[in-house]
Design brief:
alpha+beta
């Protein structure tokens, strides 16, 4: 198959993760001649983000090449869906809902307290790569407002003063644990 995109100058992401992603793609039996191959692109992007933690240009080029599509097509899908990210996230991804119900119940103060405790702003990652903070428009748990999620765990009726208590569980869990950059 002819290369659609230029090969990245040098790969910096772990080769073992590329091997896992390529094995997953092989299991899908994607033919470069099949017009339906793009139907599995989102599935592969989910897998890639699960493995690498984010979808940098290097990885996008690899996926585009495997699908025999342009980098712009892959990048377009990534930018369309909010789930996908092109920047690294922490091992523990804190999402603070700023939807209407959460906002009127003090979510902005909750966000500010998490930022203060961790020493980062929304959209940033702690220097050790363990925590990142994002704000969302709605988690869909308005009856529990204000709501935060940490990875897949939902915390409801969160008050600013509880930020440290919530984080303490994760800090205790990771003491002595080595967190890879691409977790």
């Amino acid at each position: 198959m002819a290369r659609v995109n230029p090969q990245p100058e040098e790969r910096v992401l772990p080769p073992e993760l590329y091997a896992q992603l390529d094995a997953f793609i092989e299991e899908l039996h994607i033919s470069p001649d099949d017009a339906r191959r793009k139907d599995t692109l989102i599935q592969v992007l989910h897998k890639a983000q699960g493995l690498f933690g984010f979808l940098p240009e290097e990885l996008q080029l690899h996926i585009a090449d495997r699908f025999a599509v342009s980098h712009a097509e892959v990048s377009g899908v990534i930018s369309f869906y909010n789930y996908f990210t092109t920047t690294p996230k922490g091992k523990y991804r804190i999402n603070v809902c700023l939807g209407t119900a959460c906002y009127v119940n003090g979510a902005e103060k909750v966000l500010q307290e998490f930022e203060r405790v961790l020493g980062i702003k929304a959209g940033q990652v702690t220097a050790d790569g363990k925590f990142s903070i994002e704000s969302l428009r709605c988690v869909g748990a308005c009856g529990l407002a204000p709501v935060i999620t940490i990875n897949d765990k939902v915390y409801g009726k969160v008050q600013p003063g509880k930020a440290h208590d919530i984080l303490e569980h994760y800090l205790v869990e990771i003491v002595g644990e080595e967190v890879p950059l691409y977790a």
